[in-house]
Structure formats: structure tokens, C-alpha cells
Amino acid sequence: xxxxxxxxxKYIFSRFMDVLYRKTHPDNPWLTPKAIRxxxxxxxxxxIAAEFGSGTSTIWLAKRVAVLTSVEHDQxxxxxxxxxxxxxxxxxxxxxxxSEKSSDYENVDESDYLKKALDLPxxxxxxxxVDGKHRSQCSNILIxxxxxxxxxxxxxxxxxxxxxSNSPNSRSIIEGPASREWELFWNSVRxxxxxxxxxxxxxTALFFKPVSMN
Length: 214
Fold this sequence. Notes:
Blueprint: H1 9-24, H2 33-42, E1 48-52, H3 56-62, E2 67-72, H4 75-88, E3 93-97, H5 112-118, E4 125-130, H6 135-143, E5 146-155, H7 180-189, E6 193-198, E7 203-208
Parallel strand pairs: 1-2, 1-4, 2-3, 4-5
Antiparallel strand pairs: 5-7, 6-7
């Protein structure tokens, strides 16, 4: 049975504010407003970026970085975003369609989608956004693709990683990470600088790779 326990007055207000924000900022990525403001101030025009899962974030990032690699699994959505890129005249995006037959998000033996992450050069990315399929595997792979000081962004992080968020279905500190892959990731970034943001509906977490890693 579907639970409606999260529909408290506080959540309903947060949900209303989220809908209002989307309507008044239609060109912004579907991240928390705080995360967007942070990124807008942090990103530099010579940065090299990658994202797994495309959409308005693709356009938004492409307008702010030098080179963007974007990987999408849905063919219809890929066609739509391709048209958006064309309409905006953006030519700095390597937009990749990595279709998959499997719908399993956590246990995929062979994945063209993940191979695109593995193929990225190591220690080169300034920024990577995980907001698509196979999030735990992508997150683990991208750790080695980021340059020292680079930024890894995970949307809906509260669903996978332990936190103190009030957003629905958040993982508590006691519950810990949502899977073995997420536990591996969490242990890898435990000592990284973090900026955890929430709008009361979902969370976006930012992880900064240390400049010096022992």
C-alpha cells in the first residue's frame, strides 16, 4: 500500500515551493535551488564536465563549461534534448545515446551506459553530474575520472546515502547506504568536503575530491 505519511504540512509547503520554482525557472536543471546557485558561482568557463542523465541540465551546463559529455539511455528523450541543443546553437556537447535492454538499475553485467563512464579519461573532469541510470556504479567510476579538486554531484542523494534530510524516503544514519555499491561509494568519499542541499522534496549532494589524496 502506498504511504502518504510524508505529506505533512511542511512537505506540502516544500512541494508547492518546488513547483513554483520550476515554473519561474524553467531553464534551470532539476537540482535543488541551493545547489544550482552554488554551481553557478563555482563553475568556470574552461571546465570539462560530464553528466549521466540529460535534460535542462545539459543546456544549462553547456552554456557554462568548455566541453560537456552527456550520456542518455532513452532514445526519445535523446532526440528531444538533441533538438534543444540545436535550437540553442550549442556545439560543445558530446551527446551520447547509450540504449540498454535491461531495466535493472543495480545489477547489470554488461552496460553500454557504464562503458561510457569507464571510457572517460582519468583525473580530467572538473565536474560530473549523476542523475540517470546506474547511479551507484556511475558514482564509483567517476571518482577516478575527477581531477583533484573536482566536483561530483549526485541528485536525489537522500534516497541512497545516509543523511539527516526531511525529504521523503531519505536514508537515515542508522539505515546507512542503500546498497553494497553505495556503501563502497560512501566509504570512498567519507572524508571529502561535502555540500548537502535539500528543498524538502529531494536532495542534491556535492562532493569535492581532495586536492591531495593519501
